[in-house]
Amino acid sequence: MNGKVDEQGNLTIEITHDEIQTIYREAGYKLVKIEDPIPIPIPIPDPTPDPITSVGARGLAIDLSGKPNFLAGVSHNNNDEVVNLGVKPNIYYRYLCGGYGNANPNWRGWDSPDGTYVDIVIRTAQELGAIPMFTYYQLALELERKNTGIFMAHHLRQYVADLKVMFTHIASFDIPVIVHLEPDFFGYLQQQEIDPNTTRTVERVEGFPATVTGLMMGIVAMGKRIAPKVKIGYSASRWGRWFSPTDPNADIKQYAYEVADFLKSMGTDETDFITLEISDRDAGFYETQGQNDRYFDESNQKLPHYKARLEWNKAVSERLGLPYIMWQLPLGVPSDTPSGSPLHYRDNAVHYLFRHVQDVIDSGGFGMVFGPGAAGQTTIMSDSGQFKEHMDNYNVNPMQLPGDIVVPDPTPEPEPEPQPEPEPHHKLQLGPDNKLQIHTIGDSITEHPRWRGYLYDSLKAKGISTDFIGSVTDPYPQSPEPQHDGHGGYTTRDANRELNGWFSEILKPELTIIMIGTNDVAWWIVEEEVEIVKRLDTIITRVQANSPNGIVIVASIPPQGGGNIGETVGPNGRNRNHMINVYNQGVEALVYSKTEKQEAVYFVDIFSALTLADLRDGIHPNESGNVKAGKAFLAQIEALLP
After folding, report:
1. What digits encode the pLDDT tens for the residues 461-477?
2. ∠351-291-240 over CA atoms, to 5°?
3. How far is 190 from 258, CA to CA, in rounded Å?
C-alpha cells in the first residue's frame, strides 16, 4: 500500500475494508463504516493501544470465542451422552429452573454442594470446546399461571439470591459465559398488558427502582459486576405481539417493532444480545396436535417459511441495535410425511439453517443453538446423526461475521454510580430527651420480651430512650420496658375486637409495630387467607386513626414447622406453610399499596429473617430467632430515624 506521513503525524493511505480489518481488528474502538477504497487519514496507533471494546455481532463472537465466527450449538439433557457422541458444538446450553432456594426441585439442589450444577455444565462445555450458556427460566412459569402476585411475593427475594449464586459460580471460572434471561417472561408481560415500568416489586437491586424493569436491569448489572466476562440477553417473544405465521398480510416489521420497543423500555441497552425463537417443539409434534402451520417451506414460496421469520428477526435486531441468537431450535429430521412419533418427529430447522447461515448473519444473527423444548422431542441421540453431521461440516468451514472498523474512544463514559436507596417519606418524631414511644400489637410472639428487649437495648446504645407502651405489663423480671399488647393465642379477629380498649390505655405513640396472624394460620383457620389480610387492613386503619401522626411497621409472620407441628392445620387440613406464604404475600402487597400512597406504613419481613432452626417449638422464636427479629425491626426503625 502507498502512503505518506504528514507534519501532523497522520498516515494517509488508500486501503480496502479487508486490509483495515486485518490491521485494527484487535484494537478497542467504535464502529466506523467506510467505502472501499477511499483515502483516509488514520492516526498511527500507539504501541500499547487501549483495551478492545467490541461492537456488534462480530465483536460479541470475538469476546465469547476469541474468533470472529458465527456460532452454532446444542443442548442435551445428558452431559455424558453429548461428550460420548463426539459432537463439537461452539455453544453448549442448559436450563436453570425448578423453583427457588437451595433444595430440590430448584436447580441449586440438583447437585451437592449448593449450585454445583453450574460448575458441571461449564466443565462439560469446556470438555466439548464450547462456550457455556445458561437459560434461566422461572418467572415465566408464574405468569403462565397468571400469578402476577409473584412480584410482591417472598419468592422474588429468593429468586434474586438464586441468580447471585449462579453468577458467583460462573465468576469462579473467569471465562466468557452466555446467560439468557427468562424466555417467555417478557412475552407474557406484554401479552398480559403488565406495565413493567410501573408494576412494583417486593425486591429491588441496589441502585435500581422497585419495579419489574428495575429488577431485570438490576439483575443484569449484578451479573456483570459479579462475573465481568458474562454476556447477558433478554428474550424476544412473538407472544407479545402475536400474528399468524401463515398470514400473508401480517405487518411483520410493525409487529417486530412493538415487541422490540417493549423490550427496550426494560433496559435492553444494558444487555449484550437478544434471543429469538422459531419453535419450541418439532413441527411434527404440533401436527399430532392438529396444528399444521409449523413445518416451514424451505423454498420460501409458501407460508410459513424461513424468509418471513428472518425478516421478523432482522426487524427486532435492528430496532434494538443488538445482535441476536436463535435459541431452542428443533432438531427434527425433514420428511414428506407429516407428524412422526416421540423422539422422531419431523422438522427441517437443522437442515435449512445450516445451509443458510449467511441469511441468519445478514439478518443480525451471531449464533444459533438447537435443543428440545419439551420431553419427547427429537434429540441429538435420536436424529440419526443429523445434527452432528451438520455441526462437523460447519466446523470445517465456519462463516465469519461481518468486520467492523474500530476507532479509539479517547473519553470512555464512566460507569454509572449506583443510586442511593430512596429515603422513606416519613420520619419518626422523637419526644424530649430523644424518647420514642412504641406500641407493639400481636400474639404470644410479641408477648415474649426478648425481641422487644433487643430493640430496647439497641436503641438505647444509639442514645434513644425507648418507652414501650400497651395495656399489658410483662411478668418477666428481665423485661426493661414491660408494657405491650402481645396477647397469647390472639388472632386478627381478637385484635380487632380489643383495639378500642387498648387505645384507651395508651397515649398516641410515635411508632406502632404490628405482627399478627400466626394463630389465624396455626390452629383455627377455616377461611381464605385474604380474609385474614382484610382484618389486618382494618387493624392498620384503626391504628392510623388513633395516632394520625405516628408511623406503623407491619411484619410478616415467622415460618412454622418442626417438633410436633404438623404440615397441615385446622379442620380442613390445609397445608400450613402454603397458607403462611399466601398470607405473608398478602401482607406485603397490602403494606406496599399503602406505602406507595405515601401513607406512613412500612413492611418488615420477619418470615425471611428466620428459619425453622430459629424456633424453639415450631411456632415461637428461640434466642437466635428473637435476635434476628429484633435486628430486622431495628433496621427499619433506623431508616425512619430523623
Report:
1. 989 988 898 988 877 66
2. 85
3. 10
